[in-house]
Design goal:
This protein has about 160 residues and is mostly helical. The chain contains five helices and no strands. Helix content is about 75%, strand content about 0%.
Length: about 160
């Protein structure tokens, strides 16, 4: 992967990280009325469409496919186990760590503040290398499967009134 390819990949990773809280909040809502469920779907697919448009701007159809792959890799646990509190906490922890790593490594590698300028930044290769290396190392040592997460009493399932 060349320098411009890494710039596009990191721009799309920025979109994946940015999209997480917005898409997840909308997806976790459990509207009690049919109208609320319709509005939820409109909001969910509207946000998804905006992020896909951003990915296509960064890399055309290839950008959309990369966004989908990175999003699926990030959200797979959410899609499979969204009602299990510990799984949601792990996913949130994973997002928080990737967000913090992204910011810290962007600063350390002296990336331009504007993501739109990353196409001209030669530092992007170091940034991408260290970012994905750090994520891989965290996965490898099992940080996201820490036992303390299972000890947090959380249940995101909709509870019946009363």
């Amino acid at each position: 992967m060349g320098w411009s390819g890494m710039a596009g990949l990191m721009q799309i990773e920025f979109l994946v990280i940015h999209s997480f809280p917005f898409i997840t909040i909308v997806a976790l809502l459990r509207p009690s009325t049919p109208r609320g469920r319709v509005l939820q779907r409109i909001a969910f697919f509207g946000l998804l469409g905006l992020y896909l448009l951003g990915a296509s701007t960064a890399g055309g159809w290839r950008g959309v496919l990369i966004f989908a792959a990175l999003t699926l890799a990030t959200y797979a646990g959410f899609l499979l186990y969204w009602t299990r509190g510990a799984q949601i906490l792990r996913l949130g922890f994973r997002w928080l760590v990737s967000f913090i790593l992204f910011l810290i490594l962007a600063g350390i590698t002296r990336m331009p503040e504007s993501v739109n300028e990353w196409n001209q930044a030669s530092e992007v290769c170091r940034f991408g290398f260290f970012y994905f290396l750090a994520l891989g190392l965290l996965e490898g040592v099992g940080v996201y499967q820490a036992r303390w997460i299972d000890q947090i009493p959380v249940d995101f399932r909709r509870q019946p009134p009363g």
